[in-house]
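Hi P.,

Sorry for the delay on this. The queue was packed all week, but I finally got your sequence through. Input first:
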Amino acid sequence: MGGDFDLVQHAKSSGKGLSYYDEETKEHIVPYIIEPSAGVERTALAVLCDAYDEDVADGEARVLLHLHPSIAPIKVAVLPLSRKETLTPLAKEVYTELRQQWMTSYDEAQSIGRRYRRQDEIGTPFCVTIDFESLEDKQVTIR
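Then the structure:
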């Protein structure tokens, strides 16, 4: 709410009264100004502030971004458990299939824990992990 400051100042500088005369109370009233505003920037900031979280584990702070799946830029990440050549073909196959439907990320750099953490930081709602059992039973872990 903007209050009556703007109208009072304008009335002083212009010399014109900007008040409303109330017949019942017999007094002049300067109305308050309501200044609503909206914009993409404010909405985006509100969403990011709401989704932002920090977690402390083993004395180390980590950033988490809890985005709703409908607004997360990357919907799913495919993460092979390791960079072993035996896991890569199945992981790439799953990645290729998923990217036909959703914005998908593929990551095999560093440890699986660091890769999960990276996805948590950018708000990826789902991670599909391909492990050695996946080669046999064609099942994956979804986190």
